[in-house]
Task: structure prediction
Amino acid sequence: MLTLTDEAVTAIRALTARPDVSEGAGLRISSAAAENGSVEVVAALSAGPAPSDHVVEAADVTVYVDVMVVPVVEDKILDAETTNEGQVRFDLLSVRGIDDGTSGI
Result:
């Protein structure tokens, strides 16, 4: 299943610790239609899991994975970085190594 880096755990912890976020919230990874007709993997805060979500817990954070994207993320590593503008960018990395390619979410 999905593995989280320390950076991803830290970023999710910071996002879910904000006062406007409900207790039990986590990061939800799901799919969305892109403008070009393809399907993208997206990440957003969620108050809780959807009934069919897979739940991934690491340290003290929770990631909810939509059942439709489980095959896409099951062998990936979720990493995070903060941009110069202060936004968090999550990336899915291949388990085989970072040089094998990344997919931003």
In short: The CA atoms of residues 63 and 87 lie 18 Å apart.
